[in-house]
Structure formats: structure tokens, C-alpha cells
Amino acid sequence: MKSIRYICLIVLAAIQLSAIAQGDDYVKPEKTKKPKTNQKSEFWDRIYVGGGLGAQFGNVTVIDISPLVGYRVTDRFSAGLGLNYQYYSIRINNDKFSTSIYGGRTFARFNVLDFLFLHSEFEMLNWDCPRYEPTGFVTDRLWVPGLLIGGGLFQPFGGGGGSGLFLMGLYNILYTDCTPYNNPLVLRMGVTFGL
Fold first, then answer.
1. 50 phi and psi, to 5 degrees?
2. 169 vs 105: CA distance, rounded Å
3. What are φ and ψ of residue 125, in 5° steps?
4. Which residues of 44-61 are buried (b: 16+ CB within 10 A; e: fewer)?
5. What are phi and psi of 130, to 5 degrees?
6. Contact 126, 101 (CB under 8 A)
7. Strand pairing category for 136-156 and 116-133
8. What pLDDT was estimated at residue 96?
9. Which burial class, exposed, middle or buried, applies to 88 when counting CB atoms under 10 A from its CB (0-12, 13-18, 19+)?
10. Is 142 helix (H, G, I), strand (E, B) or coil?
11. Are 171 and 149 in contact (CB under 8 A)?
């Protein structure tokens, strides 16, 4: 009988302790709220815009306008799209040929160091490909692909990510006689601005 009393006493004590633990003095810890990240802002912080201007004068005259928009996927890797417009003029003997070249490109860039990057791009350009014959220039309007790979230097400025000046040298693997560039090596200079 004594053992039943001890068991009942232990059970009552356990119930009592349980009731005390459930009382008003018990404060449930608040859940910590994670600050909401503004995904829209984060997206726009990774965007950069810019492009290049180029000019060449002489027997072959080229004026180049190439805007671009890029997205920094990581701190080192970015990809984007661009447009190309060129005024192209060539003079052979007394014959002159001029045309407008337009098209688009996609590119990928990997920053090896803060100031050094690798670059590749695929472009499609539409132009009147000239052939010089004894009677003068003969042209065919067509789309010409280009696959350019190379690298360049980047000099950042300002506080925004992606803002700076760039200078790059690219080699056109798909260079043909009908490519609008004088040779497979293409030099570009431009500027980008982080948003």
C-alpha cells in the first residue's frame, strides 16, 4: 500500500510540474523573421548596359555603334545580348561601294581577375557583300555568322558594379571573304554602366 502512495505522489508531482510549465510565466520564443529580400532590386543590381563606338577611315571606312545589355550571373561570369550597326564604305580605283550592316549578338564573359576577362560571342550580321569585278561592284545581301573569342582589359570606375571601360581583342573563327571585317582579328573598345 505504501508503494501505491508513492506512485500516486510521483504521478501528482509530475502533473503539477507539467501544469506549472504550461502556466502564464512560460514565454514562447518569437520566430525570427527573415528580412525580405527585394528580388526585383537584386535583379536590376546585376544588370549592366553600355557598348562601343568604333571608326576606321581610309580606303575602307567603317563607323560602328554596338549597344549591349548584360547580366552578372555570378561575380565572375556574365552573359548578355547586343546589337550591331555599321556604316561600311570601300573605294577601289574610282569605284565606291557603301552599305549599312546590322545584326545582333550574344556574348559570355568570365573575369579571370578584376581587370582581365575572357570573352566569346556569336553574331549574325546582314550586309551587301561586295565583289569587285571589272565592270564595278556586284553585291549579294546576306546574313554572315561570326564566332569571336578572345579577352580584354577592364578598368572599373564609379561605385556601381559593372561600370568601367573595356578594351578587347577577339579572333573571328568563322572569318570568310564575305565577313564585314578586314581580317579575323577584331579590336573593340567601349564602356559599361551598372544599374
1. 160, -145
2. 16
3. -120, 135
4. eebbbbbbbeeeeeeeee
5. -90, 145
6. yes
7. antiparallel
8. 82
9. buried
10. strand
11. yes
Give pLDDT < 50 ranges for the chain: 6-27
Statement: the pTM of the whole predicted model exceeds 0.85 = no
Side-chain-side CA neighbours of 113 within 13 Å: the count stands at 6
Distances from the Cα of 49 to the Cαs of 4, 42, 126, in angstroms?
A: 83, 16, 24
Q: How far apart are CA 26 and CA 80, in angstroms?
A: 56
pLDDT at 40: 59
CA distance 42 to 9: 62
The C-alpha cell that represents 40 in the structure block:
526585383
Supply the pLDDT for residue 31.
54
Domains (ranges, CATH) in the chain?
47-194 (2.40.160.20)
Q: Is 193 exposed, middle or buried (0-12, 13-18, 19+ CB in 10 A)?
A: middle
SS3 167: strand
